[in-house]
Each structure stands twice: as C-alpha cells, then as structure tokens.
C-alpha cells in the first residue's frame, strides 16, 4: 500500500517568507508526527496529532511554527517569517496506535531559507 | 528528559566484517527501543525494535538486545555488505500514556567497502 507522502520534496524560500509543508499519512493511521532533521543530526520531535487535535506540541521551537490536521488525515506544517536557521529536512511520520508504536516515515521536505 | 547516545561515526568496514554500533539511553520507566536506517537518498526506515527488557529485535541479519541493566541497545551484524552502507539511528519512545514521540541519537554513518 501507499506509504507516507510529503510535498514538496524541496522548497527554497527567502528569509521572512511564509511556507507550508504537506504530509499525507498512511490511510487509517490516526497518529501523525512532525520532526525536523538538521544536517548531521537525528530527527527532533516537533508536534504530534491524535486525530484532528494536537496532543503534544512541546517540540515546536517558537510561535512562528504551527501545524493543522483539520480532517484527521492530511496535515500541514506552517512556518511564518522564515529564518535561515529553519533550513532543515522536515519529516512526517504516522502510526496506528491501536496496533503498535511503530512510526512510518515519509521521504521528507528539504527546506532551504536563503 | 529522555536522551539517546550512540557512537559517533563515520564507521568504515570491509565487506564481511563484524559490525557493532553502540547505543545507550536515558529514560524514565521502560521505553521501547528502535533502530532506524536511512539509505542514501531515501527516507527513514524502521530496521528493528524491542519493547521490553531482554527482548531481541532482528531484521536483515541485524540484531539488538534490550539491556535494562546497562540501558543499552547495541546494533550488531555478523557480516556486513556494501548494501548496508547507510546512516543508522538509535531511538526510543516512552512507555504508557503519552505521545510516543521518538527521541533519536545523532546517527552513525556506516560505509562498507568491497
């Protein structure tokens, strides 16, 4: 079956601009996670959705970052007033908490802020 | 908070050599432990996992045993292949109620030469 998909695969933007990154989880997966992976580092947790609600947003670095999942499926990560330090690969993962705690990752969106 | 420490790379081995990548963790309670692998140009993939003490996870010739007494989850493979060249991440999720967010180590890059 289809895995987790993310669009775009690459995004180049200028400092100060607004960006949206999209994640389409595995069908039927109720849990969705966003992570950020900087060069040479492991992924770092940003936010977790259970259904439509953000159950844990403790990893969001500041209020420029926001994410939604209005219908409990597709999620959008939104970054306002981008800064060069936001450049990273943004990863999305989904899991079926009813089955296991294993998370399945998408290919990521590489964000470059010039 | 929870943390994962894994041996720094890069690690370069000859084909058919024995591989060990060390991983230790700090967490409250008894987390679930994972090894993820990132092949060049691809997304993160789950390699193996263990959910309780003394469990052994295994996949594709790789093994790791959950050692509660030493808080470790070392990855081993008896005979590596060139196709095993990738970045390997050790990770954990907390047990029980919560968001199951993954906490990753920094990753260990493995290069296998013919």
Task: Summarize the structure in words.
The complex is a heterodimer of chains A (114) and B (114). By secondary structure, chain A is mainly beta. In chain A, the strands form two sheets. In chain A, strands 2, 4, 5, 6, 9, 10 and 11 form a seven-stranded mixed sheet that branches. A four-stranded antiparallel sheet of chain A has the order 1-3-8-7, with no helix packed on it. In chain A, 0% of the residues lie in helices and 48% in strands. The mean pLDDT of chain A is 93. Chain A has strands spanning 5-7, 10-13, 19-24, 31-37, 44-50, 53-56, 65-68, 75-79, 88-95, 104-105, 109-113. Chain A starts with a strand and ends with a strand. Chain B has 114 residues and is an all-beta fold. In chain B, strands 2, 5, 6, 10, 11 and 12 form a six-stranded mixed sheet that branches. Chain B has a four-stranded antiparallel sheet with strand order 3-9-8-7, with no helix packed on it.
- What is the helix content of chain B? under 10%
Helix proportion range of chain A: under 10%
Shape by Cα distribution of chain A: globular
Low-confidence stretches of chain B: none
User: What distance lies between the first and last C-alpha atoms of chain B, to the nearest angstrom?
Assistant: 41 Å
What do the pLDDT scores of chain B average to? 93
* CA-based gyration radius of chain B: 14 Å
How much of the sequence of chain B is in beta strands?
over 45%
What is the string of helix and strand elements of chain B? Answer: EEEEEEEEEEEE
Mean pLDDT of chain A: 93
The outline of chain B comes out as globular
């Amino acid at each position: 079956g289809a895995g987790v998909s993310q669009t775009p695969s690459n995004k180049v933007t200028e400092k100060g601009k607004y960006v949206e990154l999209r994640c389409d989880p595995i069908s039927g997966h109720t849990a969705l996670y966003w992570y950020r992976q900087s060069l040479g580092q492991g992924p770092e947790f940003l936010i977790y959705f259970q259904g439509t609600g953000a159950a844990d947003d403790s990893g969001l670095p500041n209020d420029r970052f926001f994410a939604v999942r209005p219908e409990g499926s597709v999620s959008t990560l939104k970054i306002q007033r981008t800064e060069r330090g936001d450049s990273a690969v943004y990863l999305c993962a989904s899991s079926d908490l009813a089955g296991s705690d294993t998370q399945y990752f998408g290919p990521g969106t590489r964000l470059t802020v010039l | 908070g929870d943390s994962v420490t894994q041996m720094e790379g890069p690690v370069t081995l000859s084909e058919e050599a024995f591989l060990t990548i060390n991983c230790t963790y700090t967490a409250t309670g008894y987390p679930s432990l994972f090894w993820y692998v990132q092949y060049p140009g691809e997304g993160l993939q789950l390699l193996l996992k263990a959910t309780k003490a003394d469990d052994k996870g295994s996949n594709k010739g790789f093994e790791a045993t959950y050692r509660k007494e030493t808080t470790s989850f070392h990855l081993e493979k008896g005979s590596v292949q060139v196709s095993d060249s990738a970045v390997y991440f050790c990770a954990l999720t907390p047990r029980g109620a919560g968001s199951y967010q993954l906490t990753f180590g920094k990753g260990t890059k493995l290069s296998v030469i013919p």
